[in-house]
């Protein structure tokens, strides 16, 4: 494939994302999961020179998913879009998050807690991210995130769109002391997006990194559509008192909110100007 044609394919994909109405998607993409790994690389190589924090500890962003064992979700596709720089960065695939070796109660208990019952959303990088994921984000942050997924219990497909606000970007570029003794004296950043997928189509979102989870908020689906296999849906009753909860290692990890970070950053700026 000639380089020019290669870049045109990348720009066409970015154009598709750009022309979707924000917060409202007309239909699910038929091309989900069909693009080649070369196109993933092209999303970066054909864009303009990236602008990011020049710190080797500032890692490329990525997208992960936290799912319940008893009410799992299958992610078809996830990607970030930067409209001002005209690029789209794809991340595939998340289906192996629900493979037999990973969607396994014993496996999840190994990284969560021995008493984990399989209902809450477990937050742990070895559960929420896959080492075999195709495609990585860039150090330049996206302006919007798109994630397409299906709930096993209802067989309903959902699309979630998140605007990466200036407050979110500020939280991602905020430097923390690195928690690892191997990188003592170096900075650490929260460059991981983590979606918590609930069986009614809602999606929670955190930033992860530095042994800290920053809760952004809960998003309603931008679009929902029944699956052709809806008649196979189990539609089991959902015990929300157990499902609408999260598990994380309270001894190691800290939980905070975006509002907390925004307030602290404002105070830091005020202190510097005094």
Explain this structure to me?
- With 274 residues, this protein is of the alpha+beta class.
- It has one domain (3-273).
- It is built from seven helices and 14 strands.
- It has helices spanning 3-18, 37-45, 105-111, 125-128, 166-172, 240-243, 258-273; strands at residues 62-66, 73-82, 87-91, 121-122, 144-151, 156-163, 176-177, 187-188, 192-197, 203-209, 212-219, 223-226, 246-247, 254-257.
- The strands form four sheets. The protein has a five-stranded mixed beta sheet. A five-stranded antiparallel beta sheet has the order 3-2-5-6-12.
- The longest helix is centred in the N-terminal third of the chain and has 16 residues, at 3-18.
- The chain is globular and about 65 Å long.
- The N and C termini lie far apart (58 Å).
Brief write-up:
With 274 residues, the chain is α+β, with helices and mostly antiparallel strands. It has one domain (3-273).
Q: Cα distance, first to last residue?
A: 58 Å
Q: Percent of residues in beta strands?
A: 25-35%
Shape: globular
**Whole-number average pLDDT?**
80
Question: What structural category arises from helix and sheet content?
Answer: alpha+beta
The main sheet orders its strands as 1-9-10-11-14
| Element-level helix/strand string | HHEEEHEHEEHEEEEEEHEEH
Main pleated-sheet profile? 5 strands, mixed
């Amino acid at each position: 494939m000639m380089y020019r044609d290669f870049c045109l394919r990348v720009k066409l994909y970015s154009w598709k994302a750009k022309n979707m109405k924000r917060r409202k998607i007309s239909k699910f993409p038929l091309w989900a999961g069909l693009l080649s790994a070369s196109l993933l690389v092209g999303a970066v190589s054909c864009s303009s020179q990236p602008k990011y924090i020049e710190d080797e500890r500032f890692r490329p962003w990525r997208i992960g998913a936290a799912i319940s064992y008893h009410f799992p979700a299958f992610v078809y596709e996830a990607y970030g879009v930067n409209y001002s720089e005209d690029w789209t960065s794809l991340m595939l695939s998340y289906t192996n998050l629900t493979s037999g070796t990973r969607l396994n109660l014993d496996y999840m208990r190994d990284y969560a807690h021995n008493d984990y019952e399989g209902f809450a959303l477990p937050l742990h990088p070895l559960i929420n991210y896959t080492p075999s994921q195709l495609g990585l984000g860039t150090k330049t942050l996206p302006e919007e995130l798109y994630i397409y997924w299906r709930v096993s219990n209802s067989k309903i497909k959902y699309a979630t769109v998140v605007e990466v606000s200036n407050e979110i970007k500020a939280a991602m570029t905020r430097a923390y002391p690195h928690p690892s003794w191997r990188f003592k004296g170096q900075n650490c950043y929260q460059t991981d997006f983590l979606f918590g997928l609930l069986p009614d189509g809602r999606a929670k979102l955190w930033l992860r990194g530095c042994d800290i989870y920053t809760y952004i908020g809960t998003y309603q689906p931008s679009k929902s559509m029944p699956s052709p296999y809806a008649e196979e849906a189990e539609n089991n009753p959902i015990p929300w008192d157990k499902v609408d909860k999260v598990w994380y290692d309270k001894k190691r990890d800290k939980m905070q909110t975006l509002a907390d970070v925004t307030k602290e950053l404002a105070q830091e700026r005020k202190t510097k100007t005094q």
